[in-house]
Amino acid sequence: MNPLHQLNVELGDRSYPIFIGKQLLDNSQLLTDYIKGSSVVIVTNTTVAPLYLNKVIQSLDSVKMRYDTVILEDGESFKTMSSVESIIDILLKNRHDRNTTLIALGGGVVGDIAGFAAAIYQRGVHFIQIPTTLLSQVDSSVGGKTGVNHPAGKNMIGAFHQPQCVIADTSTLDTLPERELSAGFAEVIKYGLIHDAEFFDWLEINIEQLMQRDYKLLSQAILTSCQTKADIVAIDEKESGLRAILNLGHTFGHAIESAMGYGNWLHGEAVATGMVMAADLSERHQWIDPSVKQRTIKLLTKTGLPVKSPVEMTINKYMDIMAIDKKVDRGIIKLVLLKKLGKAIISADYDPLLLQKTLLES
After folding, report:
1. Of 22, 254, 284, 334, which one is the catalytic site residue?
2. Is 178-361 in the same CATH topology as 5-175?
3. Greater pLDDT, 313 or 3
4. In the chain, N or C: fewer CB atoms in 10 Å?
5. Burial call 198-231: b when 16+ CB within 10 Å, e when fewer
6. The dihedral of CA 170, 172, 175, 180: what is its sign?
7. Is 250 designated active site?
8. Which of the residues 229, 284, 295, 334 is marked catalytic?
9. Where are the domains of the chain?
């Protein structure tokens, strides 16, 4: 068993630990120590349930914990209010009170849905994140963002609600399809671009072994990514400033996801393309050296991620969807752009004509 890594998200009385390592789901006490109250609802999906649900149930049985399960359909297209209502229905039907803990067992979609249900049920109950994809282990399970999609825009309905803990069992990556693994690397690479040039260099050196699932290197990549996000969230929990840099490529990427139909492009695939577009616009402003964009394209390509916008995306499609992005302020679209490798900014101070060229030519 690989050594267990632990780091903390420092948020005062809402602080919590992140555990990273192999076979953590075999450690019953690690989970049960963070369950508040005497009842649990496990939220998972049709893909993850046959693989890992029994491990969680065995942990609950070891302490004679009452539990119910909700098994959602798998996919971004099910990240809806209807899925949240199905969780609330079970909570109410089986008389779960404010001392219930929800456990999110799955990828980012499950984590977002279960976290949002926990945020709104009886005005807030505890929940635990057990992310089972690379993307959710390095990004969506950390920081307390929860929510669902609306047909007009991604993640437009949600709340900030911090978990009790995050248990990232890297053994679950054994069953992760190649496409999902690649999608997760978009968020890993993002941390190098926005905050840590040395990490970006390290990824360039080790990307082939990472893609081959070298677990020592994967654990290091997950740890570095989570530490970066934890540090940023500790400074700006509710995204009033600095935290927005975590959205590099996301404004473009969310537009792709919405326009192409949720699930047709994976979140990481859309973000990868969006990061190339952000680098392109930054280069057009002469804020970054052209080599930054080229290195980004090369690294993303090695992970099998797309670096070109879908042919169906027009300037009008991008602008219509980006106009309702959460970073729009008084009608102005704020974008996360690069000043150099390892330094991102949130800016409305870009040339609209250059933005149009990026949208047209990317």
Report:
1. 254
2. no
3. 313
4. N
5. ebbebbeeebeebbeeebebbbbbbbbbbbbbbe
6. negative
7. yes
8. 229
9. 5-175, 178-361
Q: Which of 187, 257, 269, 283 is catalytic?
A: 187
Catalytic residue among 22, 126, 267, 293: 267
Question: What are the pLDDT digits (tens) for 351-360?
Answer: 999 999 999 9
Looking at domain 5-175, its CATH architecture is 3-Layer(aba) Sandwich (3.40)
339 is catalytic: no
Told to judge if 302 belongs to the known catalytic residues of this protein, a careful annotator would answer no
Counted residue by residue, the chain has a size of 362
> Is residue 179 annotated as part of the catalytic site, yes or no?
no
* Catalytic residue chosen out of the listed positions 239, 257, 269, 283: 239
The CATH T-level fold of domain 178-361 is Dehydroquinate synthase-like, alpha domain (1.20.1090)
Segment 167-176, tens digit of pLDDT:
999 999 999 9
Under a CB-based contact definition with an 8 Å cutoff, are residues 103 and 43 in contact? Answer: yes
Q: Is 187 a catalytic residue?
A: yes
Residue 1 has pLDDT above 70, yes or no: no
> Which one is catalytic: 243, 284, 293, 334?
243
Name 343's bridge partners: 340
pLDDT, residue 3, reads: 54
Which of 155, 190, 247, 269 is catalytic? The answer is 247
Mean pLDDT confidence for 119-145: 96
Active-site residue (options: 93, 95, 123, 330)? 123
If we measure between CA atoms, which residue out of 296, 354, 318, 6 comes closest to residue 165? Answer: 6
pLDDT digits (tens, 9 = 90+) for 17-45: 999 999 999 999 999 999 988 899 999 99
Is 126 among the catalytic positions? no
Nearest residue to 199 (alpha-carbon basis) of 191, 187, 207: 191
Contact 214, 176 (CB under 8 A): no
**Average pLDDT rounded to a whole number, residues 66-71:** 97
If one counts every other C-beta atom within 10 angstroms of the C-beta of residue 23, the result is 14
Express the helix, strand and coil content of the chain in percent, nearest 5 each: 50, 20, 25
Question: What percent of the chain stands above pLDDT 90?
Answer: 91
Average pLDDT of the residues in 145-165: 92
Which of these is catalytic: 55, 250, 284, 334?
A: 250
Mean pLDDT of 3-12: 89
